[in-house]
Amino acid sequence: MASNDLWIIALYLVVLVSGNDKDFLVGQRQLPYKTDELTDRHFHEIAQLSDVKHLKETVKEILIPRIVGSPGHAKVRKFIVKSLEDLGWSVNLNSFHDSVPILGNLHFHNIIAKLNPKAERYLVIACHYDSKYMGDVEFLAATDSAVPCAMMLNMAKVLQQQLEHYKNTELSLMFIFFDGEEAFKEWSPKDSIYGARHLAKKWEREEFLQKIDILMLLDLLGAPDPKFYSFFSKTESWYSRILNIEDRLSDTGMMERYVSSGVSRPQEPNRYFQPNALRSSHIEDDHIPFLRRNVPILHIIPVPFPQVWHTPDDNEDVIDYSTTENLRRIVSLFAMEYLEGITNNA
After folding, report:
1. Which of 183, 188, 195, 206 qualifies as a cystine partner to 179, CB 3.0-4.6 A?
2. Which EC number(s) are documented for this chain (predicted)?
3. Whole domain around residue 128: which residue ranges?
4. Is residue 259 part of a domain?
């Protein structure tokens, strides 16, 4: 991903996030969709579901150089596909060729996984799985984006039983693992987000974009103490639901604790999701081709970016698994709360 000078420093427009029922709209046509908070009992049941061992094992499978067209890229793609197929998801590849600087013509593969391939609507959670070409430098790209990929696969495994119901509902869950997010030479409209640009154009032509309620894009996750903001007014009310979920986890003592650098005792995590909106920020990422086609976006990316962004230090040493598990829980609870809203809208 790219932005002006890494992240916009000049003149953020910061406003307090708020929402009410009339603002809970979804899809290109901005139709109303009402969801309720999970009951305390159901909230606790889902929040307690965890498999950090699987999460760490999954990270290790993905944490290899995976430049488009390389053996590592193919290995990770096959691992993601098999992991989801083994859990009963319907998985397809959106494959295409494109010419890139330095490396020439490459074969790209977006991975598209659906709980119910016949659903009429989808909550989409997405990330990218390729790693940046950096010449002879080995770049493992832990936060960018091995950890988001692993979080999504871990979420599918941990919630396997709870998600079974949504294999037959008109509203279901879709995962997208975009290919070719990274630039090969220098970030530009033509040298970046290859997979997202191709898929958005294809789905616009096929009139499939109207089936997407919200696209939640995960990127640069795994480092400790991230700070997230609401970037788009269309999804501000949905962002407020994420704030509420984080507060509930914190209030009930269900946030994982971690040891800060240089501190020997466990520390409570700082707030991740900030009650503010950054209206003038402009971070270019896989969501852009969908945003331009009026698909509602929740962009879960920290500001500022991790210090290891696009450096060889973006490796397993930077990953804070307590933070990663907290974020996985928050995204899981948001997804379950969203999907269960279908009973209020029948």
Report:
1. 195
2. 2.3.2.5
3. 40-254+270-344
4. no
Is the residue at 23 inside a domain? no
Which uninterrupted H or E stretch holds 93? strand 90-100
Q: Can you tell me the distance from the alpha carbon of 177 to that of 77, in angstroms, rounded to the nearest whole number?
A: 9
Number of folded domains in the chain?
1
Work out whether strand 121-128 and strand 212-218 pair parallel, antiparallel, or are unpaired. Answer: parallel
Q: What Å distances lie between residue 304 and 48, 173, 283, CA to CA?
A: 30, 29, 11
Residue 206 inside a domain? The answer is yes
Average pLDDT taken over every residue of the chain: 91
Active-site residue among 213, 219, 320, 337? Answer: 219
45 classed as catalytic: no
> Around Cβ 23, how many Cβ atoms within 10 Å?
16
**219 given a catalytic annotation:** yes
Residue-level pLDDT at 233: 92
Tens digit of each residue's pLDDT (9 = 90 or more) over 154-172 = 999 999 999 999 999 999 9
Tell me the C-alpha distance between 320 and 14, whole Å.
Answer: 28
- Catalytic annotation, pick one of 181, 246, 314, 320: 181
CATH code for the domain of 156: 3.40.630.10
- Evaluate whether residue 290 is within a structural domain: yes
Dist CA 334 CA 272 (whole Å): 15
Q: Could you give the CA distance from residue 75 to residue 58 in angstroms, rounded to a whole number?
A: 13
Query: Radius of gyration over alpha carbons of the chain, in Å?
Result: 19
